[in-house]
Structure formats: C-alpha cells, structure tokens
Specification:
- By secondary structure, the protein is α+β, with helices and mostly antiparallel strands.
- It folds into two domains: 73 residues, SP0830-like domains (Alpha-Beta Plaits, 2-Layer Sandwich), CATH 3.30.70.1280; 91 residues, 2-Layer Sandwich (Alpha-Beta Plaits), CATH 3.30.70.
- It is built from five helices and eight strands.
- Helix 1 packs across helix 2.
- It is globular, with a radius of gyration of 16 Å.
- The chain starts with a strand and ends with a helix.
- The relative contact order is 0.20.
C-alpha cells in the first residue's frame, strides 16, 4: 500500500524544506520507497505500518518546524479522481482541498457560492472540489474559503498534482 502525505504550507515564506531533507526524515521514521513530487510538500511512500498522525510529529521534530499533514492512500486518491464533478480543460483551474477529517457540510454554510461566481465547489466529506475558471489567484471563492473554520487541517492541490499523486500511489 502506497500513501501520499500532503504537507500543509511547505516552501511558502520562511517555511522552507529541502526535498532531500524531507525524504530523509520520512525514511528515518521507517518508511520505504520514499519520493517527493514537486517542491510543495508532497511525499509518496510505503508505510512501515498503518499511516497515522505520528508522521506529522516525526516530521516536525526532524525538520524543526511545525508540520501539518493530510494522508491519503492510493485507493483513496483513486476515488478522489473518479469522483471529480468538474470537467478538466485546464488542470490548474480545478483544485481539491483535502481535509484531515470528515466535516459536516454545515462547515461551509458561510460561503455564498452565488457571490463567488463563476467559481464553484462541491463538498464530499473529506474533499472539497473547486472549479476556478479564472484561477486560484483571482478567486473570490478561495478568498471566502480561507476565512472559514473547517475545524481540521486542510491543504489544496491542483488537478495535475492530484492525478500525479494518484498515479504514484497506484
């Protein structure tokens, strides 16, 4: 079983982590077949045991910064890809926000989708799919979501990264 660890907020501002250091930290925790994808905190590995939140604590200690992690198995990522409700003409305009825990839909009641048009979102429990025709940087929806308390760790990846991670964990 391969697992993808999605690290939140890595290589933004002062939270810089070299991918070689990240790979070494994951290997030091006993995991194997470790590889990173891009420079934005995506690690795919074969776990030494069932993946748990202990990865975040181990990485935080090894790298000297607080690390928040969202985990998905290869099977879970395959389901994320299959469940995408939006057509993908440009893989940078469809993104998925991964939540560490399942949250009720009411967590997003404060987001007025009509006010965020043409952006759209679909919430499925642990994934939030977003269609952003004008991109993330100009998105009113991304701005509105940033103000919401989802009550758990969340991190966002564009569709190109989602499908690449699904392939790497298959």
């Amino acid at each position: 079983m391969r697992v993808a660890a999605l690290l939140r907020g890595i290589n933004l501002g002062k939270r810089q982590v070299k991918m070689a250091d990240l790979r070494a930290a994951v290997e030091a925790l006993g995991h194997t077949d470790v590889e990173t994808y891009l420079q934005s905190g995506n690690v795919v590995y074969t776990p030494a045991r069932h993946p748990t939140a202990e990865l975040a604590a181990g990485l935080s200690t090894a790298l000297g910064i607080r690390i928040e992690v969202v985990l998905r198995t290869g099977k879970e990522l395959a389901k994320v890809v299959a469940a995408n409700p939006y057509p993908v003409d440009d893989p940078t305009r469809v993104v998925v926000t991964f939540l560490a825990e399942r949250r009720p839909k009411k967590a997003l009641d404060g987001v007025d989708q009509a006010a965020c048009a043409p952006d759209e979102f679909t919430f499925t429990g642990r994934e939030l799919y977003l269609k952003l025709p004008n991109g993330q940087a100009r998105s009113k929806l991304m701005e509105a979501l940033a103000k919401q308390d989802l009550g758990t760790t969340a991190t966002t990846r564009n569709w190109r990264t989602v499908t690449a991670l699904a392939d790497l964990t298959a």
